[in-house]
Every structure is written in C-alpha cells, then in structure tokens.
C-alpha cells in the first residue's frame, strides 16, 4: 500500500504487522472495535488476536477479551474470536452464528443495549474501563486527523476513551468517502448537556474527521480488504404485500393531514422486508423524501439514485456487492446526498423526536395487545439484539413493526397471545403489519387492540385459536383491562418447543 494513506510522518514509525499489534492486547482487556453491520470493521487484527488466543490456550493460559462494537460486524471479527472461545463479554449487538451459539450455550456473556446508550455508558464508566480501541480508517492526514471509513458507529467514543489505540488503515475503502462524514464533538454528560443543533436531515453539525491523541496510537496496520457485503433476496410475495399495506397507510395519513406530502424522515431496519418497503416507496407517489436512519441499504441507495430520496443520514452502509459497485462508480453523485454520523447522533432520542422520524423495524413476534419481541426465539434464545429499533420506536413520530404472519413453513404464528420476551412494550408500538394487513393501534385500549391485531394481522390458520383465547380470557380473566389466561398464555410456545402443532 502507498504511504499516501498515512500522511502523518510522525506516525509512520508505528506501522507494524497485525501479529505484532495483537501482542499489544492483554488477557482480560476490554477492546472497542469499529464496525457496524459489516462495514468499517478491522479486517486483520481480530484474526491475529484469535491466533494469539489459540496459542495461549494451547499453553494452558485462559485468554479472553471483552468485545465492544457499534453493532454487528463480520465473521472475520465476531466469528474468528468466538470460534476460539476468546470473547468474555460481547456488546451491544451481534448477528454472528458462532457468537449466537456461544451466548445461548452460556459460554459467552452478552449485554444487549439500545445503540444510543452505548457512548453514554462508556463515558460514564458503567461498563468498566476501555483498554484498547481497534478502529479501521480510510487514511491519516498530515496533522494526525483520521479519515473515517464506511461506518462510524462508536469510533469517536472508542478513540476518546481507550488507553491505547490500534488503527487499521484500509486502502480498499474508497478515498472519495472523505468529507461524507459528520463527527459531532459537542455531546456532554449530565448536567452539562446542551441541545443537539440538528433540525433537518441535511444539517452538518460537526467535522468530517475523527480526532485522536497521537500519543495513544500504539500501532498502525495497513490493509486492503473489502467490507462484508450483504446479499438481499428479491422481495417475495409476503414482503411485497407488507410494503403495499404500509404505502396505503402512508397515503391515508397524508390524506388525513397527519403526514406531509413528502412524509417525514424515514428510518428502516435491515433486511429484505425493509428493502421491499423502500422499493415500494421508490415506485410510489411520494417525492422529495428524506431518511434519518442507522444503516443505508440497497433500497435507499436506489431511492437516492432515482431522486425520490433527496438526502440520507446514517452511521454505516450495509450494501450488496451490486449496490456497492453502484456507490463507488458514482460516489461523486452520492457524496453530498449521504451523511455518515456517529451512532450517538444517528440514534439520538432528542433528534429522532425533533425530526419526527417514521420508524419501520422488523420483529420476531407480536402479541394481541401490541407488545413486540424482536430479539429472542421462544423466550430465552437470543437471535441478534435490539439494536437501534428501540431508539426509534420510543421516540419516532410513527412506530411501525412488521413481519410475515407465520414462520417455520406455517408451523408457528408470529401473532401470539403473549410474546415470550418483550423488547418493545405496547406503549411504544403504534402500527403492526403482516402480509395479512395492517393494525393501527393508536388511540385504542388493550381490548380494542386485541381485536384489531387478530383480525388484521393474524394468519387465517391461527385466527380461530386467537379469537378463542381472547374470548375465554375476556370471560375468565380476573382483570378485564388486559385479559389473559396466565395458566395457558405460553402454551403456543411450549407446544412449539415440544414439536407439537400450535
């Protein structure tokens, strides 16, 4: 790699191999690593650290570290370290199969945190000391400032709080990303907080570079490695139906005067359903849309390309190979239409509330009263984590959760009497959508919600059983405000665990 990516001559003496850098991380260290949904994570240091851990374990030395990130990363990070049982504590979000297996087996501790809370937790010391930051950057300027790469996540906090900093300078990252980022250095802890001066999606309130005390930088590793691309399947029939229900709902809200003609800033979770909604919006009647979200996926890139979306604010990319090719080929076009921010700003409750964001997120299951489980299978097995969905659901102008109405080939209903784990209470859930229909829960009491959810969202195969449960609960429950039969409320889940029909 050319030295042009490391322009600060005083730091070139810190260049070393990943193996040498890994030796600077000690057993028991808390390590803050860059990365958010497969973008901008360190590409070679984690594997070198995993090899060091393997060697230590072979010599009878127990070697584990805490791994803190922005969100999910990639097999080269989570997977490599989990495979050698090298992670003591993982936070705030993960999606790696090896990690998930160890967490659910009780072999790895995992704290699932709202993404907007992480920086505050670290600054306040709630999580303990941050020993080392391992951060991928696109380059280092002459004065030592750092050019962020394809995600920002918690990198600002890692660089500020860590005792030692290891940088991976990745020449694969497009040099034209420089200037796309907006790093805000005005946040403070209570009682010294000030309002975040962001009043529209396109506002830039910070600077395009990350700062780091050069004396803390102990190693620089040069890389040339791609991000993990996320392949998205073409929208299936269920996804198209869900997207159609949401678009009709938006039209209705505009007609009622509850949304402006260009809607409000959009937030969308990751996945095929989310991309189907974006595809529907791209073909729909709404113009001059904006997005204030965590992750920019294929669908939003297409909307920027078509002109339907005028500006998108996020903290990371999560693109397929084709979409990444489109971005790199036309980065001059996208450069001023995309803003990448630190996740403490992209997910900031104050900003989300002020902008009136429309939050659209996926779920595993919802119950008849509108509580949502977005993280656990059958109550105790973590899938991924809450991510930023809670930040947006609690604070958005509209809070929408969506899923197909049934799973496992129709063996399991995604609408149940009571969710087996609660991530989003009925107080934060305004709209539920499945391919069967949409339930607008705003202004409804629990009993009214139950009827709306069953009739609009449940699959026909499960509607009779849900109606029967609700009617018997209404008759037999000692309390009539939120009727439940506690002795059988989880029978559906128990039947599924036993492999019996629900």
Give a written overview of the molecule.
- It is globular and about 75 Å long.
- The protein contains 17 helices and 26 strands.
- The chain folds into two domains: 9-223, Glutaconate Coenzyme A-transferase, CATH 3.40.1080; 237-498, Glutaconate Coenzyme A-transferase (3-Layer(aba) Sandwich).
- Helices cover 31% and strands 19% of the residues.
- Helix 3 packs parallel to helix 4 (97-104), helix 8 packs parallel to helix 9 (298-306) and helix 13 (349-355) packs across helix 14.
- Strand 25 and strand 26 form a beta hairpin.
- Strands 1, 2, 3, 4, 5, 6, 7 and 9 form an eight-stranded mixed sheet that branches. It has a five-stranded mixed sheet with strand order 10-16-21-25-26.
- It has 502 residues and is α/β, with parallel strands linked by helices.
- It starts with 17 loop residues before the first helix and ends in a 5-residue tail after the last helix.
User: Roughly what is the average pLDDT, rounded to an integer?
Assistant: 96
Number of helical elements: 17
- Kindly report how far apart the N and C termini lie: 58 Å
Indicate the CATH topology of the largest domain.
Glutaconate Coenzyme A-transferase
Q: What is the number of beta strands?
A: 26
In the predicted model, the low-confidence regions spanning at least 5 consecutive residues are: none
Outline type: globular
The CATH first-level class of the largest domain comes to Alpha Beta
CATH superfamily of the largest domain: Glutaconate Coenzyme A-transferase
Q: Give the helix/strand class.
A: alpha/beta
How many domains is the backbone divided into?
A: 2
Give the biggest beta sheet: 8 strands, mixed
Task: Please give the radius of gyration in angstroms.
Answer: 23 Å
Family: Belongs to the acetyl-CoA hydrolase/transferase family.
Protein name: Propionyl-CoA--succinate CoA transferase
Keywords: Transferase
Organism: Parazoarcus communis
